[in-house]
Specification:
Helix content of chain A: over 70%
Number of helices of chain A: 23
Radius of gyration of chain A: 29 Å
Strand content of chain A: under 5%
Oligomer: heterotrimer
Number of strands of chain C: 0
Structural class of chain A: mainly alpha
Largest sheet of chain A: 2 strands, antiparallel
Order of helices and strands of chain A: HHEEHHHHHHHHHHHHHHHHHHHHH
Chains: A mainly alpha (614), B mainly alpha (187), C mainly alpha (100)
Shape of chain C: elongated
Number of strands of chain A: 2
Strand order of the largest sheet of chain A: 1-2
Shape of chain A: globular
Number of helices of chain C: 3
Amino acid sequence: MASFAWTIPLWPALGWLTLSLVGGMLPRRAVALLGCGSVALAAAAATSAWITFPGVPQERALFPWIAAGSFAVEAGLLVDRLSLVMALVVSGVGLLIHIYSVGYMAGERAYSRYFAYLNLFMASMLLLVLGKSLLVLFVGWELVGLCSYLLIGFWFERERASSSGRKAFVVNRIGDVAFLLGILLLWAHLRTLELPAIGAQAATLPAPVAVTASLLLFAGATGKSAQLPLYTWLPDAMEGPTPVSALIHAATMVTAGVYMIARLFPLFTHPVTLAVVATVGGLTALFAATIALVEWDIKRVMAYSTISQLGYMFLAMGVLAPAAGIFHLTTHAFFKALLFLAAGSVMHAMDNVVDMRALGGLARPLRYTTGTFVIGALALAGIPPFAGFFSKDAILEGAWEHAAAGRSPLPFLLGLVTALVTAVYVARATRYTFFDMPHRAAHPHEAPPVMLWPMFGLAALSLFGGLFGARLVGAPLLEFLAPQFAPSVPHAPAPGVFAAALALLAALAGLGIGWLGYRERRDPDLGWMAQLFRRHWYLLDLYDGILVPASRRLALLLAGPVDLGLIDRAVNGVGALAAAGARGLRRLQTGYIRQYAAAILVGAILLMAYWVAR
Amino acid sequence: MEPVLFVFFAALALAGGLGVVASVRAVHSALALLLVLCALAGLYLLLGAQFIAALQVIVYAGAIVVLFLFVIMLLHMATGEPAARGLRPWRAGSALAAAFFLAGVFFAALRAPALADPAPPLPQDFGSAQAVGRLLFTRFLLPFELASVVLLVGIIAAVVLAKGALLLRVPAAARPHEEKVRAEVLR
Amino acid sequence: MVPLPAYLVLAAILFSLGVVGVLVRRNALIVFMSIELMLNSVNLTFVALSRHLPSMDGQLAVFFTIVVAGVEVVVGLAIIVEIFRSRSTVNLDEVHLLRG
């Protein structure tokens, strides 16, 4: 394989280094060139890797990282089918979003800091997907979490932005604890953290160990990918700049959990694990979709939509259709990033207004934005020939197979109902944002070309990206990934027209309900259901009412009586003890020579007595 | 003959010892010390340590006691010390300690078997200056050299301590800058 | 023939006298002289044992003891003179500034 291919994560890393050190002194054009150019090089390297890929996984060791007795980890890269797909998606979509940012962030004072962070994120994400060892993956995992924090809180002078960044980091951390425990468990049993080795030896683990490790890793994934119960950070992450939301919180970082499960798929094939993953994914999908139905902030609607679609991907993993999950990851990256970028264009035109109640009537002035948004919306809803239909269909086929094989029908049902709700909320969002306001006092202007062309690119991908998985043209992507998962998924699910037809019906029905039922920015009265959705099925009450106060009380307890009372007192006590001892011993020093002489004499007598007695 | 001389010198030594410890006036203590030293010199002669006996008289009795007397004279120790207060427990305690010590020595002396043996015959020049000198320049060369260093240190120390304030009092003419420096520092 | 224990006991008695002197007297000079008494008793022990071993080493020890005792007396007296100069007393009970 070409050596250029191995440099994929190097270019954004160099870009970050340069921009963070000297970016402030460079002119804007240079910063933009550097920021986008590094990602372009990464994308070129990924393409070269794909072109020269020989079909079998390639490994390249970079340097011996940890050598501590029997615990040795080598830092290296692994290029196989899965990582190729991920690298291409990450770098490709990332490049488009970088270009878009040049326009979107044009008026921003901290221009170079933005691109520096964004490049750091690209490098970290590429490291994550290309890592050879589970620890390298984890390093990338942590780094993208850091970048998420930095970028969510990019406008850190705003209190909401900085606290949202903190929230994202802390909630992620909770998942990371489980992740780390899973890593330790795997190390304890397998004595290796090399990803290919773990995959190969997964079958040798005793079932309880495999299930525990896989569930721990999945818990980490729920944190990173915002599934139940660690989803709360993603809607608040919308405080960051919109391209950041598009890149990190739609297309790439949040998909890291899905990637991780796909990467270690042989570990996740136990029925218990599969059931948990599928159920959590499916429930999250429906749960988030219902919340998106009652949100008014366009970005938050998209955030909950992302959570929902990620649930679909996990559902795919849980029904033994990992290739379908990765396919949906790809198409979702296309149309969700597009939706975010279009929303950003709307904000750009409307002075950063995100509340849909203040929008509307933008179809005529913002033609291109509206057009691309509609394309993305149709893709999200799952209408052929747009990409979302094919990928969602692939997942539902897998779920149908799963149910047909005698296991639970729940994943399929959840997926179907969610498809309906998805179509409803996306239609609602589209209508509220762009239509139904004939008179508008201000004249919003369309986005500049540097912002529009990436949107067009993503729109094209959302339109034609479905072909990657369309049976009629041989489903190239699915076929490409099949050997990756062959050991665990021996046969591809038979194409069932039934599932596809049901999905399509659900989507069309949802679109109809959404378009016709939601007009003039007035939601129909859903009564108790609206209240249920708004309170996040009363999870909000659980979190804010019980968990948060409890942990705050625990923190106060630890900070007060434990830290101050016990630990500080112990430490100070040692010092006080030394001082008291010295004070006591000091009384021996009276200054009277006679007493000193007497003491010496007493000592001498005692010594003599000892010798005489022996 | 020897036991008589021993008893004689021992009695002198004991008397002198009591005198050192019990005299009211410091000069009397010093003279008692002189008595002890000379008695001990006699005992050394009995024990065949001629050179050491001579050394004892010359250095100890001849120089050190004289030094003591000089200092007593310098400090006008004509009068004795004031009445002792709170000293009774010390007297009792020290007497007790001394009694313990002596008991221990007696006990050890009367028990050890080898101590009853008669004195072995001596080589020809035992205790002579030649014998001491020979050893000084062979086996005890290092202590010998170090002793001379110690003496040097003693001399310097004595000079420094005795001169004391005199060393620090430099005539004003020799330090013209001092006023300027002091003004600078205090600013 | 005078047995060895006799010398040793004599030395012990002189030593004890010296100890009592150090502990009881308040005049610094007299304390100093008691210390010299103690040193001399040790010298006597050395010489006696040197005679009875027989070995010249004991006498060498006495030689060095005398030398060092001389130096010690010189320095010690110089210190006493200094203390007298500043405090006008050689009463040991009044010299207790080096307290802890």
